[in-house]
Amino acid sequence: MTHPSRIFSGIKPTGHLTLGNYLGALRRWAREDQYAAESLFCVVDLHALTVEHDPARVRRLSRQAAGLLLAAGLDPEVCTVFVQSHVDEHARLSYLLECVASDGEMRRMIQYKEKSARAQRGGQGVRLSLLTYPVLMAADILAYRATEVPVGEDQAQHVELTRDLAVRFNQRYGHVFAVPKATLPAVAARVMDLQDPATKMGKSHDATAGIVYLLDEPEAVARKVRRAVTDSEPGVSYDREARPGVANLLEILATCTGKEPEVLAASYEGIGALKADTAEAVVELLRPVRERHAEISADPSYVDGVLRAGAARARELARPTVDAAYAAIGLLPPA
Ligand code: ATP
Ligand code: MG
Question: Where is the motif named 'KMSKS' region mapped on this chain (predicted)?
Fold first, then answer.
């Protein structure tokens, strides 16, 4: 059985959205993905409960993330925008996939290792859901028979796991799922923290001067970029291993200008000019998103309406697949 191509991706309301989220995910969703196939974009709020959380903040950030998806250019007339917890099929399918996944493969997930270490360092317990979250993510994707999952590089391993689970389920119980693949951006698939170019920029990390948020004031954006940590080598060259701070700036500027990082590197003599141009480019990149977000958030009933319609559409798409999985795995259908 072949399926038409379908796109699914999501974002967790664990913090304010960052430049990394925008370049690795949102911008592509809005510019290309929504027009390429039937597509769904989800605020994956259940995933935000895998680490220490404040209920009121998760609620607030969920609405804000939805508003930012629209501000980034997702058009609810073209694609489906919704909140994960509004559609029961995700959690319903997740349990079945837990019965297909193994304990060992969950413990091998890099993000589990990193985030459980972070939780322990912070003196917090590690929630069981942090271990099982990639299975819920697999359910998010497989419930829609998505064939493509546009994500940043850090999520590639989880999409790989999703493929494995889909193939395993299909082999054991009959063909229910499409086998998806991750699609990564050509540049800036992993935007690094401007103060610590060895660490990915992450919205749940403690706020530092190295994280650019989509809703930062333009002056703050410019300051953060201009103060990025680089190195003491003279001149500008593109080498991710040897010069991660400079490479990060070149990649960010490359996504703003459409030029290759190597070509940009050759056009600069000093880091100062590179920083100044990158700062200006990022400010201009984010300006329309911030402005549209202000308009959209002035009318919460608009966002609520989009999310209500989105959840209805998502339910309609997911239900038959999840029902088919329940039947295939051996559960007696309700009479
Ligand atoms: P958290 O710290 O809670 O994990 P996050 O910033 O990593 O937050 P996610 O919600 O996990 O954001 O991921 C949303 C999307 O943004 C995913 O497609 C992910 O690959 C992408 N993404 C996240 N951080 C970056 C980054 N620094 N560079 C490029 N893409 C990124
Ligand atoms: Mg993440």
Answer: 200-204
